[in-house]
């Protein structure tokens, strides 16, 4: 493998400089800022250097672990800031301009998400099906006042209330070729486990 060029080493140098600039009595904010700057430089360096497969295979789990910790930090701080902004704005998702410690103005818009679990799908489907008996949900959308056939109305309600995702293996069993209905892109992934034998 060829020696690294200065252009490849520069981000590593910049990362070291960001950390070297920390004073012994640096605050948590200053340390976080320096670490973030260094991580940005190191991520850039990692992206541009050519390493062997055997080294990459060893490093991938470490990169995943570091990435996981970063995602945890992002989630934790985003949640904390968003909840404070919601509270300050009477639970409204209004954009707020925050002036950073370095004078930079950052527009933050809090978002509220809901995660539903333990969904009783069968009961929910039955509830939607019961709605089909209501004439309001059977009106023909063309506006002529006619009622749709029960099964047609039921299918329309289900399409409205649920996301239907193709089940490609089932469609293949039915004799349908997925190439006719979508554009496919292939990719590869790698499962890396330390210390196991095949």
List keywords for this structure.
single chain, 198 residues, mainly alpha, 2 domains, two-stranded antiparallel sheet, 2 strands, 51% helix
Question: Care to describe what's here?
Answer:
It contains six helices and two strands. The chain is mainly alpha-helical and 198 residues long. A two-stranded antiparallel sheet has the order 1-2. 3% of the residues are buried.
Q: How many domain units? A: 2
Query: How far is it from the N-terminal to the C-terminal residue, by CA?
Result: 29 Å
Proportion in β-strands: under 5%
- The average pLDDT is 88
Outline the secondary-structure elements.
Blueprint: H1 6-20, H2 28-48, H3 53-88, E1 96-99, E2 105-108, H4 121-131, H5 150-161, H6 168-173
Antiparallel strand pairs: 1-2
Helix pairs in contact: 1-2, 4-5
């Amino acid at each position: 493998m060829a020696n690294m060029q200065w252009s490849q080493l520069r981000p590593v140098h910049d990362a070291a400089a960001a950390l070297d600039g920390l004073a012994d009595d640096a605050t948590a904010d200053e340390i976080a800022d320096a670490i973030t700057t260094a991580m940005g430089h190191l991520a850039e360096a990692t992206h541009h250097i050519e390493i062997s497969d055997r080294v990459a295979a060893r490093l991938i789990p470490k990169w995943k672990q570091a990435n996981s910790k970063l995602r945890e930090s992002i989630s934790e701080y985003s949640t904390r800031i968003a909840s404070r902004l919601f509270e300050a704005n009477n639970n409204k998702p209004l954009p707020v301009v925050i002036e950073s410690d370095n004078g930079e103005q950052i527009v933050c818009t809090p978002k509220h998400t809901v995660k539903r679990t333990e969904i009783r799908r069968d009961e929910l489907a039955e509830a939607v099906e019961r709605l089909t008996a209501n004439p309001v949900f059977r009106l023909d959308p063309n506006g002529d006042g006619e009622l749709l056939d029960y099964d047609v109305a039921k299918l329309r309600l289900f399409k409205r209330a649920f996301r239907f995702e193709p089940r490609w293996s089932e469609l293949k069993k039915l004799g349908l070729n997925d190439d006719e209905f979508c554009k496919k892109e292939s990719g590869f992934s790698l499962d890396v486990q330390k210390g196991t034998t095949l």
